[in-house]
Design a protein that fits this description.
single chain; 512 residues; 9-stranded mixed beta sheet
């Protein structure tokens, strides 16, 4: 695999304009590779030509091929394909499931596969392209068959693999054979590995509550506060005082907060820690929900967050009062959460100068290249109460699908970090930033922004702002967390985090 692709995030894009077809293809890929292997997104034909947005973050493009495209649409599609191939990209073309295509059938080892015999529309252009070589797919299951072949770029490692076979079959045996075929294709040809968490079959959404001060907040009292706010399937165990995969003693020994994190709920498996509690009752100031694994991890902008075992995944449910915390500063808490992740790492022994920083607005990166953490904040206001859900997903000790913190620490002969210590360190810093931002004066903001900008990866960097079509210099953030940039004419402007995104690979600020 090329050095470029080794840095690509674990994203698989499915090119189709039909949401139902996307869901079918996504489910098929997840059955082959596992749910926590790669994040699978839908790429529409409208967004296909916006190559600078998707090429840097795509490990594999799966294209559903139709036969009713106009010449203009086909030309645009081929141009995008060639651009991706020239960058060393990998493409897999499949016959559309929703195009009423004629289906022929062929038998392999007592398994019947359905296929469409016609060449895809772009192939006539490929066959006349001297920069591409055509080769048959050599494998033990369907060796040398005309249903599978590839076009290879002569100049680089770009590959466009052609499968004429539909991913649906008419029997269990045939589907198993089809799955084995694509397992071999993904593993050996595209170097995409199967990643299954074998232990998750026995995990249940069964919470254990730990309280640092049992005299003031007993488990029984806390469980009554939470009655009616939990998922119906979730249960709270009142008998168990120990979790096999979470050491609450180590956690509380490292927790130095006044109140934040003193109540924690742990479960081996949850749908999402962001959904474990609907709304935190006003009687509780805060509670942390920690999970060993999530089935539906959430990221920003409705993205998925892969949640394999070893990833540190938790949500801090927090109640603030508008009498003590200005609503204008709520937006800064996502920045405080990202900063707390960075400080939690740097507080590990001998890690003061560890090369980790914040990518605006709320991602955590190692060496400005590898994303190892993300923050998701949701807020609501009712009367004078501010309800917050602050979700953290951090690649702490998971060996897939990307690098994790502990693997980097091991490479540098530095001490590893447990989830108990990382979580406690995070809360120690986050509580201090909440206290700081609750002070309604400019000095508190200045102190926070200075520390934030000392720990991000953008200071004084030159970037390209695509909607201005010109370069600008990053100079900081303002009191609302907006990005401040300076144009060549020395005028300063601000960019909202919800309206723009930072493309690190392209050093580009892009309008969402």
């Amino acid at each position: 695999m090329s050095s470029h692709l080794s840095r690509v995030p674990p994203n698989i894009l499915v090119l189709t304009d039909d949401q139902n077809e996307f869901k079918k293809i996504k489910l098929f890929i997840q059955e082959i590779l596992g749910k926590n292997s790669y994040t699978i997104y839908n790429l529409t034909s409208t967004d296909l030509h916006k190559s600078s947005l998707w090429i840097p973050s795509c490990r594999l493009l799966v294209s559903s091929e139709q036969f009713n495209l106009s010449e203009e649409a086909l030309d645009k599609k081929i141009k995008s394909f060639r651009g991706y191939l020239s960058d060393g990209g990998k493409i897999l073309s499949l016959p559309s499931l929703n195009d009423n295509l004629e289906r022929d059938q062929k038998t392999f080892q007592q398994a019947t596969l359905f296929y469409h015999k016609d060449k895809y529309l772009f192939e006539s252009k490929y066959e006349n392209d001297s920069s591409l070589d055509k080769e048959k797919w050599q494998n033990n299951l369907v060796q040398g068959d005309e249903l599978f072949y590839a076009y290879l770029s002569k100049e680089n490692k770009g590959t466009h693999f052609i499968s004429k076979v539909f991913i649906e079959s008419n029997s269990h045996e045939s589907q198993l054979f089809l799955n084995d075929l694509f397992i071999y294709l993904f593993n050996e040809y595209f170097q995409l590995k199967q990643i299954f968490d074998s232990n998750n079959l026995n995990l249940k959404e069964n919470y254990i509550i730990f309280s640092k001060n049992k005299l003031l907040q007993s488990v029984n009292v806390i469980s009554k506060y939470l009655d009616g706010t939990m998922n119906k399937e979730a249960k709270i165990s009142l008998e168990t005082t120990k979790a096999e995969n979470f050491d609450h003693k180590i956690y509380f020994d490292n927790l130095k907060t006044k109140s934040m994190g003193t109540i924690i709920m742990y479960s081996d498996l949850v749908e999402s820690t962001m959904n474990s509690i609907s709304n935190l009752v006003s009687s509780l100031e805060s509670i942390v929900v920690l999970a060993r694994q999530q089935t539906q991890g959430q990221g920003n902008n409705k993205n998925e967050w892969l949640s394999p075992i070893g990833c540190c995944m938790f949500t801090l449910y927090l109640n603030l009062n508008t009498n003590n915390f200005s609503t204008s500063r709520i937006c800064l808490l996502q920045f405080a959460a990202g900063l707390s992740c960075v400080k939690a790492i740097k507080s590990i022994a001998n890690c003061e100068d560890f090369n980790v920083g914040i990518k605006w607005p709320n991602d955590v990166y190692y060496d400005s290249k590898i994303k190892i953490g993300g923050v998701l904040v949701k807020s609501s206001i009712m009367g004078n109460q501010i309800g917050l859900k602050i979700g953290i997903g951090f690649n702490l000790d998971n060996q897939h699908p990307t690098k994790c913190l502990n693997s980097i620490l091991r490479e540098k002969n530095l001490p590893e970090c447990s989830q108990e210590i990382f979580l406690a360190n995070f809360l120690n810093f986050f509580e201090s930033y909440v206290f700081l931002l609750s002070e309604p004066n400019f000095n508190s903001w200045l102190k926070f922004s200075t520390e934030f900008q000392e720990n991000w990866i953008h200071q004084n960097k030159k970037v390209r702002v695509n909607f201005w079509n010109e370069d600008a210099e990053i100079v900081g953030i303002n009191e609302f967390g907006y990005l401040k940039v300076r144009k060549s004419d020395n005028t300063e402007h601000v960019l909202q985090p919800d309206g723009n995104r930072f493309d690190l690979m392209q050093n580009l600020i892009i309008l969402r």
